[in-house]
């Protein structure tokens, strides 16, 4: 039998969010001698405004082989559109120089930056492998970007059977689609959580105090509603803070995302030590905070995908995640402070969530590695 050649794998990472999901796969690729890993960092990773999170990648022991700087500071519609176009322009030059350096390039999810990087690679016939395709988020323009990235990719690793069927519908093909589960859930067995004392020493937050973890992103399909949404969120958090410590992770770079940033900064002045604002927890600290929190409030994918594995209930607010499959731990409410508060009271009487996580499939990263090796052998 012929010995498989080393597969040269690139990984496109544009933010703290996708990097946290990638981590189990990066570890598996780095440790396996049959793969040569290259990390391509861009987007908010290179933005001081968002914490320059490319440093976190290096701190975790990975070499950042390429940096492509293309993000704008503004967050209005024109800035997002321009940043997407600028990312595509920068990656046109990148792929011109480096498209033949990779046998396969991983892309993840649905961000406009990721779309820009991938779309520029289409004329160069870059062999993209897409993670988390086939999902639906009707409250975000990301939904369009995700399906476009699916069409640009030749290999698909999805989290559920239903999403595999959706990818087949989008691409018109049923081959090269694999159900591997949600990659981020591998982190739960691979990452050593911080103790409460370690967390307090690192962040100045005492998790012995009953805590609610909050992450709210703008609804980019209807950004003109963000000011009203912010008003409802702030009113509900004022109520939450009467009984709980509130920890807010700040929103990503999205259309009109600064509306929420400014609102949370104002609320911090009002609530003082009852509220903590975090720009970038990193995976370990974020999951540690989730582990010790009483519940989650917001509209982030981590509430949909990871929270059930921590046995946490989630108040999922608004339409940003609308259409995405969720476990019974997720309670859906509109941006309405009275309904958010009512749902909070309901959760207090439920105790710990006892159900399953529909996104879990044991060993997602290793499942992907096995498939890549089989694909590599088939080419010999």
Walk me through what this model shows:
The protein is α/β, with parallel strands linked by helices and 380 residues long. It folds into 2 domains: 7-181 and 361-378, Rossmann fold (3-Layer(aba) Sandwich); 196-348, 3-Layer(aba) Sandwich (Rossmann fold). The chain has 14 helices and 13 strands. Helix 2 links the parallel strand 2 (35-42) and strand 3. It has helices spanning 16-31, 54-59, 77-98, 112-121, 142-152, 161-171, 187-190, 196-203, 226-240, 258-271, 283-292, 301-305, 337-348, 364-378, and strands at residues 7-13, 35-42, 64-68, 104-108, 128-131, 155-158, 177-179, 211-215, 245-249, 275-278, 295-298, 313-317, 330-333.
User: What percentage of amino acids are in beta strands?
Assistant: 15-25%
Domain count: the total is 2
- In this structure, how is the largest beta sheet organized? 7 strands, parallel
CATH architecture of the largest domain: 3-Layer(aba) Sandwich
Overall, the morphology is: globular
At the fourth level of CATH, the homologous superfamily of the largest domain is Glycogen Phosphorylase B
CATH class categorisation of the largest domain: Alpha Beta
Enzyme class: hydrolase
EC number: 3.2.1.183
Keywords: Glycosidase, Hydrolase
Domain UDP-N-acetylglucosamine 2-epimerase: 27-373
